[in-house]
């Protein structure tokens, strides 16, 4: 469970990293689509941040993730410029591919392919006779 401090820092990093990737360093992805930052998890000492990127749109997610990882120092420097008044230390950044949306889409597709027969209709009269009679508490 993350502390309030970790949650606040994670929220700040998520917002500012999105701005860095969109506005400050658009050349990092060389004209590709900017990934969305799905989650940021910060260590208890606020020294390391695990950034999860959703790379659904666009070709070859692993190549784009490698491209971002090559520019980690540049991204961290730009982030430091943006949060220098809010944070004492800029955490080390590690980027990961978040494939939870792709997994959810796959599971939805699998569930839609299942052939589940509908439940047989039950008569209401049969239901009343099958249940044992409850004792009456009040007359």
UniProtKB/TrEMBL annotation:
One of its GO terms (cellular component) is cytosol. GO terms for molecular function: ribosomal small subunit binding. It holds the Pfam family RBFA. It is found in: Cytoplasm. The keyword Phosphoprotein does not apply. Its main location: cytoplasm. Keywords: Cytoplasm, Ribosome biogenesis. One of its GO terms (biological process) is maturation of SSU-rRNA. InterPro entries: KH_dom-like_a/b (IPR015946), RbfA (IPR000238), RbfA_dom_sf (IPR023799). Residues 114-139 are annotated as: Disordered. Residues 121-130 have a biased composition (Acidic residues). Monomer. Binds 30S ribosomal subunits, but not 50S ribosomal subunits or 70S ribosomes. Belongs to the RbfA family. One of several proteins that assist in the late maturation steps of the functional core of the 30S ribosomal subunit. Associates with free 30S ribosomal subunits (but not with 30S subunits that are part of 70S ribosomes or polysomes). Required for efficient processing of 16S rRNA. May interact with the 5'-terminal helix region of 16S rRNA. This is Ribosome-binding factor A.
